[in-house]
Amino acid sequence: MIAELYQKLDALQREIEASAPASSEELEQFRIRFLGSKNVFKPFFGEMRNVPNEDKRTYGQRMNELRTIAQKRFDDAQAELKATDSGAKSHDLDLTAPGRPYQHGSRHPVSIVMNEIIDIFSRIGFVVAEEREIEDDWHNFTALNTPENHPARDMQDTFYLQANADLMLRTHTSSVQARVMTTQKTPIRIIAPGRVYRNETVSARSHCQFHQVEGLYIDEDVSFADMKQTLYYYAQSIYGKDVKVRLRPSYFPFTEPSAEMDVYWGLKDENDYRITKGTGWLEILGCGMVDPQVLINCDIDPDKYSGFAFGMGIERQAMLKYRINDIRAFFENDVRFLRQFSTAVI
Known about the structure:
Layout: H1 2-18, H2 24-35, H3 42-46, H4 53-92, H5 109-122, E1 127-128, E2 134-136, H6 137-140, E3 167-169, H7 174-183, E4 188-197, E5 209-219, H8 224-239, E6 245-252, E7 255-264, H9 270-276, E8 281-290, H10 292-297, E9 306-313, H11 314-322, H12 335-338
Parallel strand pairs: 1-4
Antiparallel strand pairs: 2-3, 4-5, 5-9, 6-7, 7-8, 8-9
């Protein structure tokens, strides 16, 4: 009987050594037959009780040897199949195919318009001035002729810092003008682009954060006519040589007299009627002659120097330029929206 068992085990060894799984399916069948939970060796272990005691040790060693041979054959076949699959995949690669292009970004529409405005004013001698966004009360309000309890403060809802009530997120870039006037000597000719903050309800037409560009020119004998010609030059540069403009009287605490500048947008379609409220005219900026008290606050002699200031919202300019009807689109970081401005690739 023991001789018959050895003959059967020898036959299984020859079968294992002759096996050459050529696919994952064949390899799995080999694993099930020789290494699975119901493998072909199970009955032979059951025969252990019928083997004479003096042969049990040799018989058990033979069984373990066959299990080891089967496991090694499985491991070798598995490695061969993996190597074959890797080689096949590498041959599937078309080395002549063009590479995938990099996805280029584009400048934000606000950045595009801001840079355009800076370029226009830099042609006539204005230089860029930048300052902090967390500002103190004096530079943001008091120096600009809006002392404490002044009604003009109600025009702007301010974000104050919890840790220090005298500090706030600046409500306009006019605070840059105040700092420049107190640190630089005249003549002064600057533009101040930057982000500002106001505690306003976010809607299609307003946001709690936006961008402004403000300008300031102070020198001897600066007149209202100088301001008009400067702003007319800007309007022609950005809206075209045939642009129609008008100045309307207005009020700002740091300029006197003050005005708002409109451009004639037209009434070509329903969108024009909505934007211009049926008038055809659209406000683009506020301006005025620097109030003498502001000059005094900044230690500039108002008897010797005069100047003008102006300011505009960049989002408003971008909305007009690109016919965008919702200011919130500028702050949502939607790639589908931003890719529309791929003309300025970075």
